[in-house]
Amino acid sequence: MRWLLIKDLQILRRSPLLVGLLIVYPIAIALMIGFALSSPPGKPKVAFFNEVPKGKGTITFGSQRVNLADYVKQLYRSIDPIKVSTRDAAVAKVQNGDALAAVIIPSDLPSEIANLVNNGVGNPTIELILNTKDPIDREFVNQAITTRLNEAEQAISKQVLAAATRDLQQVLNGGTVNIAGENVPLLGLRNSRTIVQSAIQTLPTDSPVRTALKQVAAFADLAIEGLGFASPVLGSIGTPLTVDQTELAGKTTPTDSYAAAIAVIVSLMFVAVLLAAGMLAIERSENAYTRLVRGLVSPGKLLSEKVGLAAGCAAGVTLVMAALVTLFVSLDWARLPLWLVTLVVAGLAFGAMGTLIGAVARDVAAASLLAFLLSLPIAFIALVPANSVSSGLKSVLDAIAFVFPFRAALQAVDNAFTGSSPGAGWPLVHLAVLAVAFWALARLALRRFAS
Amino acid sequence: MIEASDGQLRPRTVSGSEGPSARAPASGVALASGGVPPSAPPGPSSATLAARSLTKRFGSRVALQGVSFELAPGELVGIIGPNGAGKTTLLSILAGILTPTDGEIAHSDRTIGWVPQQPALYSKLSVAENLRLFARLEKVPDPDETVRRMLTQTGLEDRADEEVGRLSGGNQQRVNIAIGLLCEPPALLLDEPSASLDPRQRERLWEFIDALAGRGTTVVFSTHNVAEVERYADRVLVLVDGELLFTGTPGELEQAVGGAAADLEAAFVHFLHERGH
What value of ipTM does the predicted structure carry? Predict the structure, then answer.
C-alpha cells in the first residue's frame, strides 16, 4: 500500500493544475469568507432630496419640539446620501444607476405631522423610489432605509406621546403653559376640585348653587379618575411590546465561526471526494486496476489507500484554510488536536464516499462530474434550516442528511472550532460509521463494475 | 491456479454454480483432421501451462466450452478466432483474472505473466518508475536491478526517465510487456499485443517476443492478424463461439482444408466456412 501511496503522490506532483486547483480553491474560499465576515456591509448610495426649507423642520407638540434634521442625520448613518436639489434629479440618479434609491422629503411633512398630532387628521408621507433592476440590491436598500424610517417614526411617536402625557398631567395637577412666549399658570383638575369642594362647604345647605357645585365636583372626580388611568396607558403605547430574552443552557456558536466551519467542510468535502473519486478512476482509465488486483493488491487495500490519501490531503489543505480563517474569525486554537481529529475523520468519510463514486464511474471526467453533481445537493440539504420546511419534508431531508457525511462533519468541526454544543463525540462516531459503510459499498461497486 | 514447489503441474478443479452436470465433456471439442487432440488431463508433465475442459458462462451465455490444451516451455502459441469467440475470456482465465465456471488450469509454481490489450501503465510516471512500482508490488528480490534488466531487455534505457504518456504506442506496449515479465514468469499471456501498432513497431515487437520464446518463455497471444500467427507462431489454437475447433501448427491448419488455400488467412476463413461460420 505504501508504494501505491507514493505512486499517487508522484502522479499528483506531476498534475500541477489539479493540485493547484485543490489547494487554491479552499484557500480562496477561506479568504473570501474571512473578508466577508470581517467587513461590514457597505452603505447603499441613495439620492436624497429634502424639500423642507431650512428652519422649517421643527414640529411643536404643546411644549415638545421635534427637529426633523435630527432624524435625517440618523438616516444618513444607514445610507451614502447623494444630495440633490430637485425631485427630478433624484429620480434621474436612480434611473441612470448612480443611486440604488431616492428618498424625497416633501415640504409639507412637518405641517402634516403637526396636523396629525394636534387635530387627528393628516397624512405625513416620505417618498421612496427604488431601482428594481437588481432584486438583491433592491431588498438591501429597502431594508436599510425602512429600518431607519421605522426608528424615526417610533421616536417621533414617543415624543408625541410624552408631550401628551405631560399635558395630561398638567390638566390633572396644574402647572404653567407657554402661550405666545408667556408662562400662563394652569390650575388643574385636582386644584379645581379642591376649590369647588371648599366653596361648597361655605354655602348654606339649601343653596341652589351648592347643588350645581356638587355636580361640578362629581364631574371633577370622574375626570381625575379617568385621566389618572389615561397617563400610564399613553405611556405604554410608545413601547407596546417588550421582549424578555432568555438564553437556555448550552454554548451557542457565533455566526462567523459557524460560517467558517461551513466553509471548511465544503472545501474538505470537495477535496476529499474529488481526490478519492479521481484517483480511483485513474486506476481504471489507465487500465492498471486489473493488473493491480491480479494478486498484487486486494481491492479492499486499494480502496483504503485512496481513502487515506484523500483524507490526508483534504485534512492538510483545510487545516491551512482554518489557520487562514483565524486571521479574520476567532477560533479556539487550544482545541487544535480536536481540529485535526475531526478533519481527518471527516476526510475519511468523504474520501470513502469519493471511492464509491470512483468505483461506479469508468473514467476521471465522469467521476469528477459525478462528484460535483452529488456533493452540491448533499451540502445544500444538510444546510436547510430546520424550521423553514414542513415537518414531512424535514424528515425526508434529515434522513438524506443522515446518510451523507456533511451534517455530521459540520457538527464535529463546529464543535472543534468553538466548543459549541452538541459535542464532537457522536458526530465523529457517525462519520466513522459512514466511512466504513461507504468503503463497503465501494468494494461492492468495484466487484460489480470493475471486473 | 495450481501451485507446486517441485516444478510439476498440479491440477485445480473449479466447479461453478451450475454443478457437475453443466461441465462440458472433453469429447465435445471438435478437432479438424491433422490437428493435435486436446491435452491429456493435467498431471505431472513438462508443460508450462495446461487447461482442461475450461468452461465459462456469463449468465445464460456460454463464453467458453470445454477448452483443453497444454503448452510447452518456449512454445509460441497464437489464438485466433472471430470477434466474440472467447479469446480474451480464455486469456483472462489463464491469467487468473476470471474464474472459470468449470474446468481445470495447471501451471508451475511461478506466476504467469499477463499483458492486457491496452497498456496498463501510469502515463504520468516515467518508464523506470512504472517498472519500479510494479517490481515492488510483485515483491521481486532486487527491484532496482530488475528494472535495469528490463530496461536493457526492452531497449528503453535511454527513455527510462521519460513519462510513459509521451512514448509512442509501440514503446508503451514494450513497457507493458516488460511489466508482465518483471517476475520472470515461465509463461506470458498477451492479449492482441500488436493491435494498435504500425508495421515498423509491430516488427520490433515481434522480434522482442520471439527472443523471449527463444529464452524458454512460453508465449501465448491472441490476435486478429492471421499473418502474424503464420509468421511467428509454433502452434495455433482456433477458437469459435467458445469452442476450441483446432490446435496444431499453421501448416496443419492449411492441410486441414485440403491445402487449397493460398495462405493461412485463406485457410482459416475456409476452415470457418466449412464449419458453418
Answer: 0.73
Q: CB A295 to CB B129 under 8 A?
A: no
Question: Taking CB atoms and an 8 Å limit, are B118 and A287 in contact across chains?
Answer: yes
How far, CA to CA in Å, does B269 sit from each of A36, A268, B85, B250?
Answer: 75, 60, 14, 13
For testing the chain B interface, which of A5, A9, A287 should be mutated: the one with the most B CBs within 10 Å? Answer: A287
Candidates A251, A303, A288, A254; CA nearest to A5 is A303
Pairwise CB contact (< 8 Å): A292 & B116 = no
Distance, CA of B136 to CA of A407 (rounded, Å) = 41
Taking the domains of chain A in order of start, what are their residue ranges?
A: 45-158, 187-238, 252-449
**pLDDT tens, position by position, B71-114:** 888 899 999 988 888 898 999 898 888 889 998 888 766 678 88
**B200 CB contacts (<8 Å, ≥6 apart)?**
B170
Q: Which fold has domain B12-112+221-274?
A: Rossmann fold (3.40.50)
Q: Pick from A168, A165, A162, A164: which is nearest to A190 by CA?
A: A168
**Element housing B274 (H / E):** helix B264-274
Tens-digit pLDDT profile for residues A133-167: 666 667 777 777 777 777 777 777 777 777 777 77
Cβ–Cβ under 8 Å, residues A48 and A82: yes
Mutation site, A2, A7, A13, interface B, largest B CB count within 10 A: A7
pTM: 0.68
Q: What architecture is domain A45-158?
A: 3-Layer(aba) Sandwich (3.40)
Say yes or no: A297 contacts chain B, CB-CB below 8 A.
Answer: yes
Residue B245's identity, in one-letter code, is L
Whether B68 and B244 have beta carbons less than 8 Å apart is answered as yes
Other C-beta atoms within 10 Å of A390: how many? Answer: 8
